[in-house]
């Protein structure tokens, strides 16, 4: 089946389960999924129940769409995403983002756990994503262009929307959260980086590295969604600290900062009301 046919077929198959037209699509990264459990939920669609949908295999990723209102804003939340390193092709990795656009979402809010490359960062920091480097993963736009979604050669000069960034900055300030800012670089993973790769990332202008997000932001920008994102710096990337990295530590740090992260996401989404009407 052609990618566009597949997308529209999947959309048709879940259409009746969608309780409202979401305004914002929110992707919760590793260890950040608890946010969805704290909301008044309108409906849930498990990825398992969607025929043909890529299902995440990573521990700590739940795998469902959650529909809820946050401060009067209608939101569809991905509690768990799929990653390229799980073996899906990159088109499958961004299929959920495309689906959320078809549901009606105008904004994509991405979150992730990331390794800090900028030496001024510390584990536990939150970083507003101001730009990304996606050239280490295949482009999700390779292949026949889906004209109904966007143009062949989309501009990427401002993937991360300045108005949305300002809303997040303001809410961080109000909550007394020190918000770092920087460029996120996506590698394929699943292995963490070597110290030399981290050094290369820094030379290329990255402030944080991870295994997700940039491809989703590319797909969203192709569809002219407004995009914003926050990385939770769960660890300093390899070679900066004198100890090996492990997934458990990444999750533990994400858990530790989840409260301030959740507050920032919730208040920011509530304030997006102003630009969505
Ligand atoms: N590297 C890549 N991805 C990550 C890291 C890291 O150090 N930490 C959390 N996700």
The radius of gyration is 17 Å
Q: Count the E strands.
A: 9
Tally of DSSP helical segments = 7
The ordered string of helix (H) and strand (E) elements is HEEEEHEEHEHEHEHH
Q: What is the molecular shape?
A: globular
In short:
With about 280 residues, this protein is α/β, with parallel strands linked by helices. The protein has helices at about 5-15, 90-105, 160-175, 195-205, 215-220, 245-270, 275, and strands at about 25-30, 40-45, 65-70, 75-80, 105-115, 125-135, 180-185, 210, 225-235. Helix content is about 30%, strand content about 25%.
Report what the structure shows:
The chain is α/β, with parallel strands linked by helices and 277 residues long. The protein contains 7 helices and 9 strands, in the order H-E-E-E-E-H-E-E-H-E-H-E-H-E-H-H. Strands 5-8-7-6-9 form a 5-stranded mixed barrel. Helix 2 crosses helix 5 and helix 3 packs across helix 6. Hypoxanthine (HPA) binds next to strand 5, strand 8 and strand 9.
Key descriptive features of the protein:
277 residues; alpha/beta; 9 strands; globular; binds hypoxanthine
Structural topology:
Elements (H helix, E strand, L loop, with lengths): L2 H12 L9 E5 L12 E6 L17 E7 L2 E7 L10 H14 L3 E10 L9 E8 L28 H13 L4 E8 L8 H10 L3 E3 L3 H9 L3 E11 L10 H25 L1 H4 L1
Parallel strand pairs: 1-4, 1-5, 5-9, 6-7, 7-8
Antiparallel strand pairs: 2-3, 3-4, 5-8, 6-9
Helix pairs in contact: 1-2, 2-5, 3-6
């Amino acid at each position: 089946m052609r990618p566009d046919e597949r997308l529209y077929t999947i959309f048709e198959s879940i259409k009746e389960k969608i309780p409202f037209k979401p305004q914002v699509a929110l992707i919760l990264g590793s260890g950040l999924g608890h946010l969805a459990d704290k909301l008044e939920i309108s409906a849930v669609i498990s990825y398992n129940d969607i025929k043909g949908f890529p299902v995440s295999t990573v521990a700590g990723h739940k795998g469902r769409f959650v529909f809820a209102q946050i401060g009067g804003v209608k939101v569809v939340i991905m509690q768990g995403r799929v990653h390229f390193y799980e073996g899906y092709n990159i088109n499958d990795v961004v299929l959920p983002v495309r689906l959320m656009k078809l549901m009606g979402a105008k904004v994509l809010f991405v979150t992730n756990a990331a390794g800090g490359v900028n030496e001024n960062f510390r584990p536990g920091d939150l970083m507003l994503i101001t730009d990304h480097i996606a050239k280490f993963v295949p482009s999700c736009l390779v292949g026949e262009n889906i004209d109904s979604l966007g143009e062949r050669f989309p501009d990427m000069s401002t993937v991360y929307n300045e108005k949305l960034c300002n809303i997040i900055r303001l809410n961080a300030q109000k909550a007394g959260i020190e918000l770092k800012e920087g460029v996120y670089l996506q590698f394929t993973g699943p292995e963490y980086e070597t110290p030399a790769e981290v050094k290369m990332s820094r030379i290329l202008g990255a402030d944080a590295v991870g295994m997700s997000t940039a491809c989703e932001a590319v797909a969203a920008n192709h569809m002219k969604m407004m995009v914003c994102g926050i990385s939770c710096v769960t660890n300093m990337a390899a070679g900066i600290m004198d100890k090996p990295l492990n997934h458990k530590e990444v999750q533990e740090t994400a858990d530790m900062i989840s409260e301030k992260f959740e507050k920032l996401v919730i208040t920011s989404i509530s304030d997006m009301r102003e630009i969505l009407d």
